Amino acid sequence: MPYLARGWVPVETPSSVLVSSSKYLNNPALREWLAMILLRRNGADMPPPAEMYAFLPILDALRDHDAIEAMFTEERRTNPALDAWFEARFISTYKIEDFAQYAPGTLGGIFHAQMTGGNYEIQIVPFSEPKTQLQFFNVRSGQTHDFEHILTGGGFNYMGELVPYWYRLTNVFKYIRNPELAAELSILSIFGSLRYTVRTLLHYPQVWPTCVDAIQRGMRVGQDSDALFMAKLEDVFHLPLEQARAALGVRGAVDVDTDAAGAYWAEQGPLLAPAALSLETA
Fold first, then answer.
1. What are the residue ranges spanned by the domains of the chain?
2. Contacts of 10 (CB under 8 A, 6+ apart)
């Protein structure tokens, strides 16, 4: 018996299809999607945001929504900060043009420059009034994601995406006491971040150090900071970035220029010399 095969018990079943104790492995759409996002090279025919658009209905079908609502309700009994956040149920109605009033260098001014310079849209998915606690969590997460890029030090590029992903993967577990609930709220982040980590190592190893650094920076901010995912960011749009970070309890953020590495990863730019791909503080 080979050493690595010790303990393996082949499973016999009369089923003619794959059967597993994992609902994720049982889902053929997820298996197909996961194989694609882990193994493919990047191409203009399938931009990374389109991958997540395809993933959202798969995730929604897999979730036990009643169980998640019950976990939220129970969590609120012993988590006053979360309960107050849900009681306030604050949702923004801002538009890109509303940020023109903020001075350069402020959180709102940086956001305005990024959105207009990159021709981005604020509303990624059509807005609908949240009817459940999970829906509110998702709506608010969508509204704060771009600001989390700025606050955590993740550039608006494909390598920069790893910073807010890993801030969430650590920060949510820090402030949600039930690990099963925290895991449910982190599934989108862990699957989303896999695209960047696995594909980088397989196809773009030249920028692997950038990838690792982004993960480490995101984890550090998530572990050291207050519960940014529950913060009312709108109150600090007028503050310079460092003051906004201090007001929100964001700690350990480092601004690193990953534009060149992100462009190379997306096959939108030439391979740069190793020195040009080194990490430089913006």
1. 47-277
2. none
Indicate the SS3 state at residue 226.
coil
Q: Phi/psi of residue 227, each to 5°? A: -75, 80
CB contact at 8 A, 252 and 221 = yes
Which helix (H) or strand (E) segment holds residue 54: the answer is helix 48-62
Question: How do residues 187-226 score in pLDDT, each as one tens digit?
Answer: 999 999 999 999 999 999 999 999 999 999 999 999 999 9
Q: How far apart are CA 98 and CA 138, in angstroms?
A: 23
Q: Which of 232, 225, 185, 191 is nearest to 75 (CA)?
A: 185
The distance of Cα 132 from the centroid of its chain, to the nearest Å, equals 21
Distance CA(270)–CA(262), nearest Å, equals: 11
How much is the pLDDT for 275? 44
C-alpha 249/C-alpha 226 separation (Å) is: 5
Residue 261 CB coordination number (10 Å): 31
